[in-house]
Amino acid sequence: MSSTVDSIATVGSWRELDDAVGDQGWYAERDIAHAPTVFRGLARSSYRNVHSLARLHTDYAELERHLLRSFRKYAHRSSPGDSTWDWLSLAQHHGLPTRLLDWTYSPLVALHFATASAPDEEAILWQIDCEAVHRRLPEPMLDALRDEGARVFTTELLDRHAPDLEALRQLAADEPFLLFFEPPSLNVRIDNQGAVLSVASTPDLRVEDWLDEHDEVWRAWRIPPAVKAEVRARLDQANVTERVLMPGLDGLAAWLRRYYSPLDASAEDGGATMG
How many angstroms separate the CA atoms of 133 and 211, rounded? Predict the structure, then answer.
């Protein structure tokens, strides 16, 4: 995806970034509170939208079902029920390699994760038009969304129309696709972060390649270190911090560590992962 990424604009200030994100003309939508877009912030612009399953140095597509089966076996005390999609959401939340990627409805939340670490390195903010992505779904899935009057799936809706990963693969027989769904409210972190998850239709679908082939559904901005610091200051002033987005002792510790050691913040990536 290097040729596309190289064409991404670089912002020169917080105000420029705020104005760019707030421009709804891109998707012909004027109600920003109900915009059909989601965001993803990465602390380094060299990072890519590669799901954690694909980072395994092995035949990860074959391993997927074994990983999820074992997770369900050993995590039965934390069972979210019988839904494959609820289990996948839980597994993603706790760091199991999956084909899911974390997104958020809030550009400020995404910017938190883009600026909470690596202050001396350029960050990147991604924005995707979910409706444009979903217009490329197989007809049965697109019809399910339309009948529900929804822009993204819920796990209940997925259970009815693609109850497991094999059903998703079968739907992708003609054309690979991405879809977005809201995870269940497993805990307050998911609620506070406005979490959304994307899933690839098959485990070997490279999200980067799919986005490269459909560059009309997304836009992104590079955030240089100086602007990154300005954005970080704005977020801290607005209380968009680890303490709020990750309630509990872990989030509190991550916030205090970053707040009191700004010069050393690039040494650790604590608190810089969504979920």
Answer: 10
Cα 194 from chain centroid (whole Å):
10
- Kindly list the distances between the CA atom of residue 233 and the CA atoms of 42, 91, 227, 257, 261, in Å, as whole numbers in the listed order: 17, 33, 10, 15, 14
CB 266 within 8 A of CB 134: no
* pLDDT, tens digit only, all 275 positions of the chain: 444 556 799 999 999 999 999 887 777 665 666 778 999 999 999 999 999 999 887 888 889 999 999 999 999 888 888 899 999 999 999 999 999 999 999 999 999 999 999 999 999 999 999 999 999 999 999 999 999 999 999 999 999 999 999 999 999 988 999 999 999 998 899 999 999 999 999 999 999 999 999 999 999 999 999 999 999 999 999 999 999 999 999 999 999 999 887 654 444 454 455 66
On whether the CB atoms of residues 92 and 197 are closer than 8 A, the answer is: yes
CA–CA distances in Å: residue 114 to residues 46, 178, 220: 12, 23, 12
Q: Which residue blocks in the chain are alpha helix, DSSP H?
A: 2-5, 14-22, 60-74, 84-93, 107-115, 130-134, 139-148, 155-161, 165-171, 188-192, 207-213, 225-237, 242-245, 249-260
Structure tokens at 101: 């990627």
Tell me the whole-structure pTM to 2 decimals. Answer: 0.91
Q: What are the residues whose beta carbons fall under 8 Å from the beta carbon of 86, sequence distance 6 or more?
A: 80, 155, 183, 184
For residue 103, which phi and psi values (nearest 5 degrees)? Answer: -135, 175
DSSP 6: T
Instruction: Please state, in angstroms and rounded to a whole number, the distance separating the CA atoms of residues 212 and 206.
Output: 10
Phi, psi of 78 (to 5 degrees): -105, 25
Q: Where are the beta strands (DSSP E) in 19-133?
A: 37-42, 100-104, 123-129
- Domain assignments of the chain as residue spans, ordered by start: 2-262
